[in-house]
Specification:
The structure is a homodimer.
Chain A (H helix, E strand, L loop, with lengths): L1 E2 L1 H5 L4 H19 L5 H10 L8 H7 L12 H13 L3 E4 L4 E4 L10 E5 L5 E5 L1 H13 L3 E12 L1 H6 L3
Parallel strand pairs in A: 4-6
Antiparallel strand pairs in A: 1-5, 2-3, 4-5
The structure holds a DNA duplex.
Chain lengths: ~170, ~170
DNA sequence: CCAATAATGCTATAGAATAACATTATATTT
DNA sequence: AAATATAATGTTATTCTATAGCATTATTGG
């Protein structure tokens, strides 16, 4: 099983998370001959500010002012960056939250699913063969051809299970 | 595996689907001492008009005029009915589509998932132990306590696989 | 440098969902 | 049955999410 649950739920040197994500992003965009512009990079950095999925308008609010013009960066621009980052596989959309989160292992093929803590809001991404196989097999029994999947599990992360004394 | 994929994807006597759903709904609401009012029943009937998830404003548009007053039934009222029907387990929300679909087996405990055809829009609900076990086990490996799950698979239903010749 | 393409700025608007308060209907108590 | 309490609906406005359309600026390739 591939997962970033250690990092997502426990305290750690988050700056390393961010810089690693940024480095990976640059490399991948370079390899794919697409442009990780300053704005796109800033959006990615904003999303990576935590392990909690972030809404598009939260991103708008938390983005620094445009370095060049000193003006705010508005929703359509942010949404364009989001679309770019989604296409490049650098972020994911969490459908149940209308929010976006950085992908911890972009570039690698993985049908992912998410463990989202209802208490602290942190989300871990996982990829488990067992689950993918189960999806494939159950779909097959209905003669259904799988093309994409959204799996979002809500509950309590390890830390918050301790916090809530029940 | 529990599923309504037969009915969802293939032609059938849909009136029976609807009347069966309505009957179940009445029974369940009666048992739970909650009121399936005319409007709530009309919303449920509208959702059950097909096996395709229906958006809230589509429901608003497709609802008949209020039998009593002859006026349109507006969004907040429809949303209230949706909330009621969700609470009673009579319908489900499809997060990836912002849409709602009738539950074919309400009352029974089931952690469900959906097979949604991108071609015809029909969605089948399934419940497979194998998948639930896989979810539980992978979550457990991350020390995550599962409370609810959203699993939405997109692809091609049996009928539409034949239609699209590839 | 010039033309073509890509990215961003900006305004408006579409689509999904709910807040707040008034009104009406139903249930409960007397 | 009348009075009261509770539940459901009507109505208007608003919030939140997302995109359309067009102008402007930046980047790339010749």
């Amino acid at each position: 099983m591939l997962t970033n649950s250690r990092l997502a739920y426990h305290s750690h040197d988050h700056k390393r998370c961010v810089s690693a994500a940024l480095t990976r992003a640059k490399t991948l965009c370079d390899d794919s001959d697409v442009r990780l512009t300053p704005i796109r990079e800033a959006v990615l950095r904003t999303i990576w500010a935590s392990h909690r999925p972030l809404g598009a308008y939260d991103i708008v609010d938390q983005m620094a002012l445009n370095a060049a013009s000193g003006k705010r960066i508005l929703a359509p621009t942010v949404y364009r960056s989001i679309e770019f980052l989604l296409t490049q596989g650098l972020i994911h959309r969490i459908a149940t939250l209308n929010a976006y989160i950085g992908c911890p292992f972009p570039g690698s093929h993985h049908s992912d699913f998410f463990l989202i803590c209802r208490e602290c809001g942190s989300a871990a991404e996982c990829s488990a063969d067992q689950l993918n196989i189960a999806v494939e097999q159950t779909a097959k029994r209905a003669d259904f051809k799988v093309e994409s999947q959204v799996i979002e599990i809500a509950g309590l992360c390890p830390e918050c299970q301790q916090g809530s004394l029940k």
